[in-house]
Amino acid sequence: MTALVPRTSRSSRRRALRRLSELYGSENDDPSDPIVRTFFEGLAFYEQILFEKHGKNVKAGRTRQKIKNKGVYQSLIDWSRAKGESDGFKACVAAGRPELTGEYIVVQYAHRFPEDVVDGARERLTLHDIALPSP
Prior knowledge:
Structural class: mainly alpha
Number of helices: 6
Radius of gyration: 14 Å
Distance between the termini: 41 Å
Number of strands: 0
Largest sheet: none
Strand content: under 5%
Low-confidence stretches: none
Helix content: 55-70%
Shape: globular
C-alpha cells in the first residue's frame, strides 16, 4: 500500500501534506465554515500521521465517531474541556502543526465558543509553549 503523501524531501512532503489536508477540509460538512474546514484539515493530517506510523491506512475511529454523534462544534468543546490531551493533539503538536489542533481552532475562533472552553484551550496551548492565535 502506498502513502497518500509520497516520501520525498521534507519540505516537499510538508507542502504535499498541507495541500492534502486543505483539500480534505474543503470536502466536509460546511466548507464555508472555517471551523469545520480547519477541523477536517487537522483530521486529514492526523490520519496521515497514523498512516506513516502504522504503514497502512488507519482512520481516527474515535474522533470520527464523536463527530458523527456530536458534530464538530460540540466535539471541539468537549476536547477543550477534557483533563488531558487527545492523541490527535499530541500528534499534531509533535509534527509541528499545532494550528490543526482542536484547542488552537477554539482559541482562533474564540468568539464562537463559551468562555470556559476558550480558557481551557488557551491553557493547554500555553502549557505546551504554543504561540496563541489572534482571535
